[in-house]
Structures are given as structure tokens and as C-alpha cells.
Amino acid sequence: QVQLVESAGGLVQSGGSLRLSCAASGRTFSIYAMGWFRQAPGKEREFVAAISWSGSNTYYADSVKGRFTISRDNAKNTVYLQMNSLKPEDTAVYYCAADRSSAWYPNRQSRDYWGQGTQVTVSS
């Protein structure tokens, strides 16, 4: 059983930066790839970024490329999302997800674990 807890969301001004964390607890010895998704009010959840177990492969949505960076520290069972040059349209609840796999499969229909989400609000 693995639980994911997101943190470090908050309110920032446009152009500012924020780093989200997703800490895993429980059976964290398992190999897993990690990803970030976000959902704004009235919109469907969308993919943001993902990283393989080794960290050698990363994936980003076009809307965040060049601004966001995903990384992980397996010793701490934590994945991070560094968000720079934030825009009001980045405002959403951000969720982390995990797959019990060494690789991230973009077309996979479901994910094995989900966090509860953390709110990110970017003011104009």
C-alpha cells in the first residue's frame, strides 16, 4: 500500500516560482514512475509532467515546457515539480500519480496511485 501526499502549493504572483513536492509513504521500496497532473475549475484533469524511476526520462506538456522541471529523490521517496514563470492559467489543483513501473507510459489509461492534490493559485 502506497500513499502520496502533495505539498507546497500556495498563492504566488504572475512570473513567480513555486516548487511542489509529492512524498510517498508505505511500501515505497517498489519501483515506480511518477507524474504530475492538474485540474482547473470546470476543466478536465490534464497531464503536466512525468519522470521514470531512474530519472533518465522526462515528459512535459507543451504548455509547461521550458518553465516547469520535474525531478525526484528516490532516497527520500519524493518527486518535485519546480514551476517557474508562473502564469494565471497555471492556477489549478495539482495532483501527483504513481505507476508501479520503471518507465512512464503516456498512453496508459489508469495510474496505480493518486495523491489528494494541492492548490496552486497564480494572481495577475
Structural summary, described in words:
The chain has strands spanning about 1-5, 10-15, 20-25, 35-40, 45-50, 60, 70-75, 80-85, 90-100, 115, 120-124. It has about 120 residues and is mainly beta. Strands 2, 4, 5, 6, 9, 10 and 11 form a seven-stranded mixed sheet that branches. A four-stranded antiparallel sheet has the order 1-3-8-7, with no helix packed on it. It starts with a strand and ends with a strand. The model has no long low-confidence stretch (mean pLDDT about 95).
What is the topological layout?
Blueprint: E1 2-7, E2 10-13, E3 18-26, E4 33-39, E5 46-51, E6 58-60, E7 68-73, E8 78-83, E9 92-99, E10 113-114, E11 118-123
Parallel strand pairs: 2-11
Antiparallel strand pairs: 1-3, 3-8, 4-5, 4-9, 5-6, 7-8, 9-10, 9-11
How would you summarize this macromolecular structure in one to three sentences?
The protein has 124 residues and is an all-beta fold. It has no helices and 11 strands. It starts with a strand and ends with a strand.
The proportion of residues forming helix, as a percent range, comes to under 10%
Largest sheet: 7 strands, mixed
Strand content bin: over 45%
Distance from first to last alpha carbon: 41 Å
How would you state the average pLDDT, rounded?
A: 93
Derived from helix and strand composition plus strand pairing, the structural class reads: mainly beta
Topology, number of strands: 11
Report Rg: 14 Å
| H/I helix tally | 0
Shape label:
globular
- Poorly predicted segments: none
Secondary-structure element series: EEEEEEEEEEE
